[in-house]
Design a protein that fits this description.
By secondary structure, the chain is an alpha+beta fold. Helix content is 29%, strand content 21%. It is built from 4 helices and 5 strands, in the order αβββααβαβ. A 5-stranded antiparallel beta sheet has the order 1-2-3-5-4, covered by helices on one side. The chain starts with 7 loop residues before the first helix and ends in a 12-residue tail after the last strand. The structure holds adenosine monophosphate. The site of adenosine monophosphate has 13 residues, from loops.
């Protein structure tokens, strides 16, 4: 799938849409999800134009990959959730339930998160 530069996270990266930013560095931006599903629900996105984890893992540079995953861990520590723990989740494509076509990792925390994957109701 080609990258759509008009997706909502691309607009956030360009500053065209506001976000509740919690972290930013050369490689990544993190902001609170507008529809939180846990007491802490933050999205971490790479600065580069990558549709999904599939795209990113295949085509991003080693510096981008290292920078992004370092940022993901830094965000969790700065949020204070590394202890007692948190969950990261990246939805990929249609079956993965991905809604926004710019790679994002969810960070969920702040309560016991329960089963790993819930069946749709
Ligand atoms: P996914 O289903 O993994 O693609 O998740 C997309 C997430 O983006 C959802 O949890 C939405 O609530 C969240 N979202 C959509 N638009 C925005 C926005 N403008 N600011 C923050 N979060 C958003």
């Amino acid at each position: 799938m080609a990258y759509d530069p008009n997706n909502v996270f691309a607009k956030i990266l360009r500053g065209e849409i506001p976000c509740d930013k919690v972290y930013e560095d050369e490689w990544a931006l993190a902001f609170r999800d507008i529809r939180p599903q846990a007491p802490v629900h933050v999205l971490v996105i790479p600065k580069g134009a990558y549709v999904s984890m599939d795209d990113f893992s295949a085509t991003a540079s080693a510096d981008e990959i290292a920078g992004f995953f370092r940022a993901l861990g830094t965000v969790a520590r700065q949020l204070g959730v590394a202890e007692p723990g948190y969950r990261t989740l990246a939805n990929i494509g249609e079956d993965g339930g991905q809604e926004v076509p710019h790679l994002h990792f969810h960070i969920f925390a702040g309560r016991r998160l329960g089963r790993m994957v819930a069946k749709p109701e």
